[in-house]
Design goal:
It is a single chain. The protein is α/β, with parallel strands linked by helices and 293 residues long. It folds into two domains: 6-176 and 279-289, Rossmann fold (3-Layer(aba) Sandwich); 181-265, GMP Synthetase, Chain A, domain 3, CATH 3.30.300. 44% of the residues lie in helices and 11% in strands. It is built from twelve helices and seven strands. Strands 3-2-1-4 form a four-stranded parallel beta sheet, sandwiched between helices. The longest helix is centred in the middle third of the chain and has 20 residues, at 99-118. It is globular and about 55 Å long. Residues 282-293 have low confidence and may be disordered.
Length: 293
């Protein structure tokens, strides 16, 4: 036994077997735990026929590129950096609920071009079984570009992915989810490099003061809505931290600084989006569209 449950061993073996059936694979490596496990599995299964791709743009938070580089180096997988230009797309900038579709379309377009140049036959993302039913417009772009989701195909849940990351001694095993900075901008508010930069700086300041996980959501009028763990709400609202926080964020360009009494929660901006505009992964339909070759 290697410390994994029988179910997880079975799913890991299924994942590796499916990957070995591919001629080669490019993994979209963000630096998070899902894509890191995907990159590790690809390297174990395919060796030098596996390559990691990391997209870099204004929406990537400070430190994330270095994290991706560190993960790739730890794994031993070849690592290619892709400069993406999603800001050039009016559809991306207008920030409707399908923003992620336009971002991923740019990423997959650039990744596919590099993959073809390197002779890499397939691309894969880090979607897992717990993503089914969530709002994931980027998965429509994955279908459009025939991007595989091997973790999902193998039935691996988020906790199982973390367990594999610990088993493979990956440094991001316990890393909290870190979606792109654009996900902090309220739908309908234009995504701009200036706004992304100040969101990043605000979150960095809060993390430096011990607040984690944390999100700084930007709403119309340059209003900052801070989501923090419940135990931090009273501390953020009390001096001296309250005045320091307000002074720092207003200096960054936020007009008002607010603290959300609901606390930290992923995807909270989706609550304000019309239900008919939220795209969700269908387990059956998605599995059929991404049957491994």
């Amino acid at each position: 036994m290697d410390g994994l449950s029988l179910q997880l061993e079975s799913r890991r073996d299924r994942l590796l077997a499916e990957l070995r059936a591919l001629p080669s694979l490019g993994v979209l490596l963000s630096g998070g735990v899902d894509s890191a496990v995907m990159a590790k599995a690809a390297f174990l299964a395919l060796g030098e026929k596996a390559v990691a791709f990391t997209g870099v743009s204004d929406s990537l938070a400070e430190g994330e590129l270095q994290q991706a580089r560190s993960v790739a180096e730890r794994i031993g997988i070849r690592h290619e950096i892709i400069a993406t230009q999603e800001q050039a797309s009016p559809e991306y900038r207008r920030n409707a609920p399908d923003r992620c579709f336009h971002c991923k379309t740019e990423l997959y377009t650039k990744a596919q071009e590099i993959a073809q140049r390197l002779g890499v036959t397939h691309l894969a993302n880090g979607a897992n079984a717990d993503d089914v039913g969530d709002h994931r417009p980027g998965m429509r772009a994955a279908r459009d570009f025939d991007v595989l989701s091997p973790l999902l195909s193998a039935g691996l849940t988020k906790e199982e992915v973390r367990a594999l990351a610990r088993h493979w001694e990956l440094p991001v095993a316990e890393k909290p989810a870190a979606p792109c900075l654009a996900s902090r901008v309220a739908y309908g508010v234009e995504v701009t490099p200036k706004r992304l930069k100040k969101i990043d700086a605000a979150e960095q300041w809060l993390r430096e003061h011990g607040v984690s996980p944390v999100r700084v959501r930007l709403h119309a009028g340059e209003v900052a809505r801070i989501e923090a763990p419940p135990e931090w709400i009273a501390r953020l609202a009390a001096d001296p931290l309250r005045s320091q926080l307000n002074q720092h964020l207003t200096a960054l360009g936020f007009t008002f600084v607010t603290i959300d009494l609901g606390g930290f929660r992923s995807g909270s901006l989706n609550a304000a989006a019309p239900v008919d505009q939220l795209e969700r992964i269908s387990d059956f339909g998605f599995q059929r569209a991404h049957k491994m070759l």
